[in-house]
Amino acid sequence: MPDKKIITIFITLVIAFLGYTAYLYLYPPFQTNETDTLVNTGKMVWQNNNCQACHQIYGLGGHLGPDLTNSYSKRGPEFIKAFVMAGTPIMPSFKLNDNEMDALLHYLQHIDSSGSSDPRKFTIHFNGTIE
Ligand code: HEC
């Protein structure tokens, strides 16, 4: 009976869909990092100075400057500090005070520890999720 076959296939697909959905929600492939207040202050420094107009975090943002998701581990805090304070011919300088700079660096460190923004470095798991 073709009708029975269709119903069997439909029910199998629904069960597979619900099973996979439950599995993904029960075992999320990411860790939830608690954010502290200094990181949140740093995020505000980032937003108030409009860094995202020219820079991306995880590929989102402006494209005049480079993606800064992993700049903390690639370049280090001293390099970032020097870049932000001095600027370059194509990036404006920002005269941040010590507290703002400290918070901004904590924010960039936090973003850096959340993962890699380079898709070529992603690990693909057997269940189709990436890390
Ligand atoms: C008007 C656009 C613009 C804004 C706004 C801007 N930047 Fe930039 N930034 C650039 C450009 C362009 C470069 C590349 C400059 C170069 O190589 O001379 C850059 C480079 C950098 C670098 C060095 C990256 C690397 O790995 O070489 C850092 C760090 C940086 N910016 C941080 C910041 C932060 C933090 C802010 C906000 C406080 C900010 N930028 C705001 C345009 C901008």
Query: Number of DSSP strands?
Result: 2
The N- to C-terminal Cα distance equals 45 Å
Strand order of the largest sheet: 1-2
Strand content: under 5%
Low-pLDDT windows of residues: none
Give average pLDDT, whole number.
91
Number of domains: 2
Provide the CATH top-level class of the largest domain. Mainly Alpha
Do you know the CATH architecture of the largest domain? Orthogonal Bundle
Amount of helix:
40-55%
**Largest sheet, strands/sense/barrel:** 2 strands, antiparallel
Structure commentary:
The protein is mainly α and 131 residues long. It has 2 domains: 1-30; 37-117, Cytochrome Bc1 Complex, Chain D, domain 2 (Orthogonal Bundle), CATH 1.10.760. Helices cover 52% and strands 3% of the residues. It has helices spanning 2-26, 37-48, 71-75, 77-86, 98-113; strands at residues 56-57, 60-61. A two-stranded antiparallel sheet has the order 1-2. Helix 2 (37-48) crosses helix 5 (98-113). It starts with a helix and ends in an 18-residue tail after the last helix. It binds heme C. Heme C binds next to helix 3 and helix 4.
Short summary of the structure?
This protein has helices spanning 2-26, 37-48, 71-75, 77-86, 98-113; strands at residues 56-57, 60-61. It has 131 residues and is mainly α.
List the helices and strands and how they pair.
Elements: H1 2-26, H2 37-48, E1 56-57, E2 60-61, H3 71-75, H4 77-86, H5 98-113
Antiparallel strand pairs: 1-2
Helix pairs in contact: 2-5
Q: What are the salient characteristics of this protein?
A:
about 130 residues; Cytochrome Bc1 Complex, Chain D, domain 2; binds heme C; 2 domains; 2 strands; about 5% strand; about 50% helix; elongated; mainly alpha
